[in-house]
Amino acid sequence: TLSGVFRDLLPMQTRLLAEAALLAAQADEPLEMNYVRRHTLKYQEQNGCDFETAALRVFSNADGAYGANVNLLIDSGAWSDESELADTYSSRKCFAFTANGTPVKHPEHLKTILADVDLAYQNLESTELGVTQLDYYFDTLGGINTMDKETRGQSVPTYIGDQTRGDGAVRTLQEQVSLEARTRMLNPKWYEGQLKHGYEGVRAIEASVTNTLGWSATTGQISPWVYTQVAQTYLLDETMRNRLAELNPKASARMANRLIEAHERNYWSPTQEILQALQDAGDELEDRLEGFVAGVAA
Prior knowledge:
Strand content: 5-15%
Order of helices and strands: HHHHEHHEEHEHEEHHHHHHH
Distance between the termini: 50 Å
Number of helices: 15
Radius of gyration: 22 Å
Largest sheet: 3 strands, antiparallel
Helix content: 55-70%
Shape: elongated
Number of strands: 6
Structural class: mainly alpha
């Protein structure tokens, strides 16, 4: 799967990958030695399509389109169940590239291929941006996982290859998000550094919470304790809550709403005491936000 940006920047490489898949499918080898050929012939027999179509393996957006839009659905909260996320990913990323570089829409082919996927993997190369700092990661890797869950009935294991130092390390998504929670969202050195940037710093903290919710929605592989600690660190602490509200009342209110949404979507089950305190904090932040807006309007 290619991002729209890579599709635009690397057209020759896209064609080479598509051609490589076709050549592998055409190789005169025993099927037990060549899985690409075996799956190609199986798909061709089941669907009655031509061989070249059955051998398609490189997918991206349509020309001029970017992203899977799963991130936009998560950000808006305007989705009822996870099947909508899968359908959105499928409709946006189902354009298969032929060996001559032409993208052709094949949603059912993409679903068939992903139904056999055993794991999902994403490489992480930047120490600046983790998987909870950038919504692109769950938009793509998480989007793939939503389709896996839709076709297989369960999520597949998801791994992050951390190549930011030394020999690198491979972690499960759950381990990676837990690590980033401890070293970033729950780390005073990180969030105090963010708060020095005022309005934008609070927005960055809220974005990390939203992206964590995105991973829960697309994979279901996030430890619930992360939400508990985030709530206690930022919203149930009155002093911190006031600091956030003074710097960015809108992002502060959104953060509270994200945590409540995580509970309502069954990604997190806080105690009744914590839930009530969080709801009260959310109501307080919404009231402050309305007062802030009214003051500006006046």
